[in-house]
Design goal:
This protein is an alpha/beta fold. It folds into two domains: 274 residues, Rossmann fold (3-Layer(aba) Sandwich); 148 residues, 23S rRNA-intervening sequence (de novo design (two linked rop proteins), Up-down Bundle), CATH 1.20.1440.60. Helices cover 50% and strands 10% of the residues. The protein is built from 16 helices and eleven strands. Strands 1-11-8-7-5-6 form a six-stranded parallel beta sheet. It has a three-stranded parallel beta sheet with strand order 3-2-4, with helices on both faces. Helix 7 runs parallel beside helix 8 and helix 15 packs antiparallel against helix 16. The radius of gyration is 24 Å and the shape is globular.
């Protein structure tokens, strides 16, 4: 087995492109430019590079940014005073104090000094409390909560790669406040069964082998070996360790990829997501600063259903007379699934657009398009086993589409159409269920 590489760089660029698009709209429609302030204390080379890269990302996305550099011996009170200044600066929507800090400065006092609304690192106790108390991942997304950037990036990677979390066994190796703990909380919000392992955990390899999703966030180079990994598991490597061989993660990549089903590389995996999620949090913080809360007028979802084939393109007005009564139409199932995905796309193009809705929209469009695509592949299958597998995927995608449709925020005028689509997704689930049952018995 050779694991599928989870490309953090590619997903990171997707996030940046989305943030840039939303930033342009924020400027045009509400006159707000997201602003991010960096405080860099001392001359740590790595910290200087990190801040420089973050400032460059701000420039590319159209943000305002400012960097306050302070000597390594700066007293704590002076740092706190600068934070207070940025707390009251209307141009600044996010404040980031680059870690690690010199020994005379208390990291926790610094974090708590940042106003929660400008805590784009997602580390303030108020923000941590908000997402740990949220009932679900859907609530977290719907409320646009500010999340710790690296754990948030991990969740987006799982989502964008279509990796199921709900019901899975997850093991997080590491219990730091910045890594392991928030990662565990976010996985729990998606209904994973989570174990947090650490240096005192007995039989650690055995515990890790129980994981469908294994997260390494311990800061020890190549610590996780292949005997820690369940065959086919998802392995997320958060570690960045500088060695004589260059940057390596907490996972022995070459060994792990022989066993895992999915794996993030170092570099180019989870770490690549951190700056993108910081930019996303800054945009969210900026979007909250105005009392004017109307949604964006238009935004085409980046995900699209599969292109229609020639059979689908021949559908005419006689075949599709009553588009508001899906349950009475007796179309070929391929045509019916195509029409469903088409109507979903038309519906989501008309709903209000913000970050929470945008993430849900992508899921709806992906699921709706996948129903017909998998059914077409099922009909082209050469074996009964493959046909049933594809039909099961279609049924699952119909269920997913129904789930995400229920979460979309829409106007009261759009409720009727949304309810019709939910009903059609339910009907498709029943149809595929019947097909699976019949095929299994034959």
């Amino acid at each position: 087995m050779t694991a599928i590489i989870i490309d953090g760089k590619a997903v990171s660029q997707e996030i940046k492109d989305e943030v840039k698009s939303f930033t342009q709209k924020l400027k045009q429609e509400r006159g707000i430019t997201p602003g991010l302030a960096f405080i860099l204390i001392g001359d740590n080379p790595a910290s200087q590079v990190y801040v420089k890269n973050k400032a460059k990302a701000c420039e590319l996305l159209g943000f305002y940014s400012v960097t306050e550099k302070m000597p390594v011996d700066t007293p704590e009170e002076k740092v706190l005073a600068k934070i207070d200044e940025f707390n009251h600066d209307k141009r600044v929507h996010g404040i980031l104090v680059q870690m690690p800090l010199p020994k005379q400065i208390d990291e926790y006092r610094v974090i708590e000094a940042i106003h929660p609304s400008k805590d784009v690192d997602g580390l303030h106790p108020f923000n941590i409390g908000q997402f740990t108390q949220a009932k679900s991942w859907d609530e977290i997304i719907r409320k646009n909560l500010l999340l710790p950037c690296t754990p948030y990036g991990m969740m987006i990677l799982l989502e964008r790669y279509g990796i199921e979390v709900s019901g899975k066994r997850a093991v997080v190796v590491g219990r730091s406040n910045l890594g392991g703990k928030p990662t565990a909380a976010l996985l729990l919000s998606k209904n994973a069964t989570v174990t947090v392992a650490h240096s005192k955990t007995e039989n650690l390899p055995e515990v890790c082998r129980e994981a469908d999703i294994l997260v390494a966030v311990i800061g020890k180079a190549n610590f996780i070996r292949k005997n820690f990994i369940k065959p086919g598991a998802v392995v997320l490597d958060v570690g960045i360790n500088r060695t004589s061989d260059g940057l390596v993660g907490d996972v022995d990549f070459e060994e792990a990829r022989e066993v895992a089903g999915w794996i993030t590389p170092v570099p180019g995996g989870v770490g690549a997501m951190t700056i993108s999620m910081l930019m996303r949090n800054t945009y969210v913080a900026a979007s909250r600063t105005s009392e004017k809360t109307e949604s964006f007028k238009s935004q085409t979802p980046s995900s699209k259903p599969p292109a229609a084939n020639s059979k689908h393109e021949t559908l005419n007005s006689k075949q599709i007379q009553n588009t508001n009564d899906l349950s009475t139409r007796k179309f070929d199932l391929e045509d019916r699934t195509f029409l469903f995905s088409k109507r979903v796309l038309e519906f989501v193009n008309a709903v209000p657009k913000d970050f929470a809705n945008n993430e849900i929209i992508k899921q709806v469009v992906r699921s709706a398009g996948s129903i017909g695509a998998n059914y077409i592949e099922a009909n082209e299958s050469l074996s009964k086993k493959d046909f049933i597998m594809r039909a099961k995927i279609s049924r699952k995608e119909a269920k997913e589409a129904r789930y995400w449709l229920r979460l979309i925020k829409c106007s009261s005028a759009q409720e009727e159409e949304r309810n019709a689509l939910i009903q059609e997704a339910t009907e498709l689930m029943k149809i595929f269920g019947a097909i699976i049952t019949k095929s299994t018995k034959e």
